[in-house]
Amino acid sequence: MAYLNITELQKHYDNYHALRGINLKIQEGEFIVFVGPSGCGKSTLLRTIAGLESSTGGSIDLDGRDITELASSKRDLAMVFQSYALYPHMTVADNLSFALRLAKEDDAVIKEKVSSVSASLQLDKLLERKPKELSGGQRQRVAIGRAIVRQPKVFLFDEPLSNLDAALRVQMRLELARLHKKLGTTMIYVTHDQVEAMTLADRVVILNAGQIEQVGTPLELYRSPNSRFVAEFIGTPKMNLIKLDGLTREGDMLQLKLMDTLIDFPVARVHGPLPSNATIGIRPEHLTIVSDSGDLTGRVELIEHLGSEAYTHIRLANDQTIIVKAPARTEIKDGEMIQIRVDRDELILFNESDRVFSVVPEEANHE
Amino acid sequence: MKRSITRLLMAPSVILLLVWMVVPLSMTIYFSSINYNLLYPGRNNFVGWMNFEFFVTDPGFWIAISNTLTLLLSVLIITVVLGVALSALIDKPFAGRNVVRVLLISPFFIMPTVNALIWKNMMMNPVYGIFAWISNSLGLEPIDWLSNYPLVSVIIMVSWQWLPFAILVFVTALQSQDTEQKEAAQMDGATGWHIFRYLTIPHLARPIAVVVMIETIFLLAVFAEIYVSTGGGPGYDSTNLAYLIYNQALLQYDVGVASAGGLFAVLLANIVAFFLIRAVGKNLTV
């Protein structure tokens, strides 16, 4: 039995079907990240779990208790909002203790809890300040502190870092990861930033148009996506997708025709019916620039030097542009004709309805 | 060089505004110090403080001051309390909300004279007014509002006139309240009342200060409603300072005493403004 169990969750708005049957099991202590493009339903899902939106079907169980119809304050959840939603007319101390005071807890207990939380978040010197006298990062910490004070069963985060500048965002991301290690509480985190998803999550839930596209650890999603949507969504720069010019079976090998080249692909790595044609997906780091006998040829259009590596944009013979990751001090120049080798093990095949019908071998473990 | 040109270009408007203010004020001061009765022209000799003495010792003077302040405070309390309550009530979406909002705001478009006439003839009239009809249909004696409760009647009319202004300001202010804050409070276990008490009221502190200040300016000078409905009476029961001045100037033709009264009104407005700004002005400085 999972800790948080979401079954067939539906959410209809007047003329919009926001959640189309969400099924998800979350274990205690997991850090789950909902990620997806805007309008995919990730925030709606979070708000429905929080009880800020009512569901129109399905159920939510938390720790063996059905909370689908419960008021949000009775669900044992705490939420950190995108705008932090601090109470502007209260001091930091009052913000932190608001829920406890409403629950009529003992003054001494409240004081004790507030001081321990404020100490752990380095807020103890700010307790008498109002939210408008705090910096963005400090407000963020107060918002998190306000959630921690209640000792909820699950923390919900609604894009909490999107209002911070880039440097602070990286720092807060680390603090959140540390916090999760320390508290060990279940956390659900919504973001549209796939880097946040990859770095924070135990498991990532990718949503698309109100449905779960795929659930898995960050590395599973990265290496073996099960649809074109996931493949393109995860990873920067994006996975290269090239439409094949033909697909034939020769014994226990598939022959993938890619312009002038034939690439062999073992049939053992394919499941489901064989489509008549397919698209291959290959990440920039699984393409290598070679001096001869490459699989693809193309002309270098642009090189982006990132210091640690360089992304080479290459125009192929069929006029498509792909990105190849090259070493930092590459000798390649703009306009040069080059050859590219494809790493067979990391090749992914998509059928015509954009689903993956190949598997990545387990042992493909490159040193 | 550049500075003097700007000053030169600003001069006409500044001078015009100055003249606009200084001429009436100095004429009022001048009239208040001479014997100036329209019934006895040509005898405009200097009389010193006599006009002030007359005005202050007028039997209606202290009644008018107390009526002015009663009217001001009652209308302020009614419009702010009811205004906050009604705005909070219509803040949540419901069917026909826009119509309700327009209806709530529309009394503000009605001019004070018409407002007073409507209340006097259609609502409060003891024979065919709506209040009389309600009393009659309940088997009660109809109340003659304007003769028995003249000041209360004026307070009702003026409140009706100014409630829409308060609602307009508060509704706009409520729309700028952060919904995530309310949701956060909801998750913290706050009831609707808690949210109203701890989030909405503090959020409205500044709009309330604005409403109180602006209404004060206009409420100190209420005239049309009194003139049209009660005529300041019976006796001095619904006479305020503005009406007393009018009474001196145009019913007793004594411009000198009326001018002295006008200066008292300026004084009273400044005293009230002083206390008001001390009381609510701190909400404005953020």
Automatic annotation (TrEMBL), chain A:
Annotated keywords: ATP-binding, Nucleotide-binding, Sugar transport, Transport
Positions of the ABC transporter domain: 4-234
Record keyword Disulfide bond present: no
Entries under CDD domains matching the protein: ABC_MalK_N (cd03301)
Keyword Transmembrane: no
Gene Ontology cellular-component terms listed: ATP-binding cassette (ABC) transporter complex, substrate-binding subunit-containing; maltose transport complex
GO molecular function, one term: ATP binding
PANTHER family assigned to the protein according to its UniProt record, in alphabetical order: MALTODEXTRIN IMPORT ATP-BINDING PROTEIN MSMX (PTHR43875), MALTOSE_MALTODEXTRIN IMPORT ATP-BINDING PROTEIN MALK (PTHR43875:SF3)
Protein name per Swiss-Prot or TrEMBL: ABC transporter ATP-binding protein
Species per Swiss-Prot/TrEMBL record: Marinomonas piezotolerans
Origin organism lineage: Bacteria, Pseudomonadati, Pseudomonadota, Gammaproteobacteria, Oceanospirillales
TrEMBL record, chain B:
Gene3D superfamilies for this protein: MetI-like (1.10.3720.10)
GO cellular component: plasma membrane
UniProt KW keywords: Cell membrane, Membrane, Transmembrane, Transmembrane helix, Transport
Coiled-coil ranges from the UniProt annotation: none
Keyword Transferase: no
Compartments where located: Cell membrane
Membrane-spanning ranges: 9-31, 61-90, 102-119, 151-174, 207-230, 250-277
Family: Belongs to the binding-protein-dependent transport system permease family.
Protein name per Swiss-Prot or TrEMBL: Sugar ABC transporter permease
Naturally occurring in which organism (per UniProt): Marinomonas piezotolerans
Phylogenetic lineage: Bacteria, Pseudomonadati, Pseudomonadota, Gammaproteobacteria, Oceanospirillales
